[in-house]
Amino acid sequence: MVKICCIGAGYVGGPTMAVIALKCPSIEVAVVDISVPRINAWNSYQLPIYEPGLDAVVKQCRGKNLFFSTDVEKHVREADIVFVSVNTPTKTRGLGAGKAADLTYWESAARMIADVSKSDKIVVEKSTVPVKTAEAIEKILTHNSKGIKFQILSNPEFLAEGTAIQDLFNPDRVLIGGRETPEGNKAVQALKDVYAHWVPEDRILTTNLWSAELSKLAANAFLAQRISSVNAMSALCEATGADVTQVSYAVSKDTRIGPKFLNASVGFGGSCFQKDILNLVYICECNGLPEVAEYWKQVIKINDYQKNRFANRVVSSMFNTVSNKKIAILGFAFKKDTGDTRETPAIDVCKGLLGDKAWLSIFDPQVTVDQIQRDLTMKKFDWDHPLHLQPMSPTTVKQVTCVWDAYEATKDAHGICILTEWDEFKNLDFKRIYDNMQKPAFVFDGRNIVNVDQLREIGFIVYSIGKPLDAWLKDMPAVA
Ligand code: NAI
């Protein structure tokens, strides 16, 4: 029986391995992690991450051919194929701080693999890593190998949180990069055989190692660039009276452009886009390509601009101050159908409003109070370290309360910011909400999900990103 071990039981390792176990009953899959609470949660009824469809997959295989364990060394030793899906945060200090990927966790995983292995293994990079990481990993493994042979493959993951299970069941493509040697080709074939259990062969692409590594960074950069492009347009729409929804619809009808990823919003978030672009920028700089680096840097700059612009719009609309005003925040996760808050634009918007001394009442159907308090007190990039290494929040932010209901959050509020596009926010009883708010009552829709005309009819002053401005807002001071 082929044995697979995956180091890192996170948003990628957990769902990916659960789907491999489901689709390949003849393969035994162990997912290991140094975090005891995380593994305990994977072995419980309350999985550590919320992802539609994940519960059912885990329930079907757990205890049969899918195991979650903290005994990292045992499972690595026994495995034929070792996936490494640990976090690869942005470096916070030293050379390349604020840009380069921090490969501490990856390196320590590689050294451990070399230490405990007693048989030949295929080591698969599942984490997103800088180009040429495989070469560094290869060196660590071969210099410590005691005669054991390792083949390194790059198999970046393209799943999107919120649709991870569907993406894994039916991927646009699976990408496998390997050394172009007989041993490398054999290893690529072995991994191809795993995916071939359910992925059509023409969707399994094979490339050299460096192309696979770079393709993942390139794909994320292209996706984020589309969001920044439409967000840049949203600012121009507000200035000219055009409607960004109409503009992006018209643009999307061009088959060369297509409809996906063209919704204007308060900005992109998630653990990957910013980190991977910063990483790309750093690689460009290191390779003497400052113009290329500058080009990709703009994608992040526009995203920061959009988040600031939104927070400034809230403050300027409300007579240039939100001091001591209650603002309801609807949605904190970086997108709907996930509880993930890593790099969520809600953090920047909330910090902006707290900076102006607002009182925030936050509701998100999937994010805990503890997580929100942690996010609002944590330093940039600290979130991307294993939980036990993250600084504990020393004090809670006293201007923030978290509630479990949108009506409670909005009661007596002066304004509402919609920051995540949860479906349930579309069907709220806005008349009831309006009646219970301070007047004038404001809605700032950072996801363009409300019916602006209906809300204006109720009496709200509405700001919706990239839409023609409310007469009220036009008279307010311009926002930076
Ligand atoms: P995560 O932070 O949820 O999970 C990583 C896990 O690795 C943590 O539970 C941590 O405790 C564990 N870990 C760290 N060092 C370890 C070690 N030495 N031994 C055992 N366990 C260790 O991260 P996530 O989101 O799963 O991402 C992992 C990688 O996949 C990153 O490189 C990310 O860029 C990439 N990726 C993430 C996607 C996403 O949607 N979250 C999508 C595609 C790629």
From TrEMBL:
Domain of life: Eukaryota
UniProtKB keywords: NAD, Oxidoreductase
Keyword Cytoplasm part of the UniProt annotation: no
Ranges for domain UDP-glucose/GDP-mannose dehydrogenase C-terminal: 328-452
Record bears the keyword NAD: yes
GO terms for biological process, alphabetical: glycosaminoglycan biosynthetic process; UDP-glucuronate biosynthetic process
EC number: 1.1.1.22
InterPro entries: 6-PGluconate_DH-like_C_sf, NAD(P)-bd_dom_sf, UDP-Glc/GDP-Man, UDP-Glc/GDP-Man_DH_C, UDP-Glc/GDP-Man_DH_C_sf, UDP-Glc/GDP-Man_DH_dimer, UDP-Glc/GDP-Man_DH_N, UDPglc_DH_euk
Enzymatic reactions: UDP-alpha-D-glucose + 2 NAD(+) + H2O = UDP-alpha-D-glucuronate + 2 NADH + 3 H(+)
Coiled-coil stretches: none
A Gene Ontology cellular-component term: nucleus
Binding, NAD(+): 8-13, 33, 38, 86-90, 127-128, 161, 272-275, 342
PANTHER family: UDP-GLUCOSE 6-DEHYDROGENASE 2, UDP-GLUCOSE DEHYDROGENASE/UDP-MANNAC DEHYDROGENASE
Family recorded in the similarity comment: Belongs to the UDP-glucose/GDP-mannose dehydrogenase family.
Protein name per UniProt: UDP-glucose 6-dehydrogenase
Organism: Gossypium darwinii
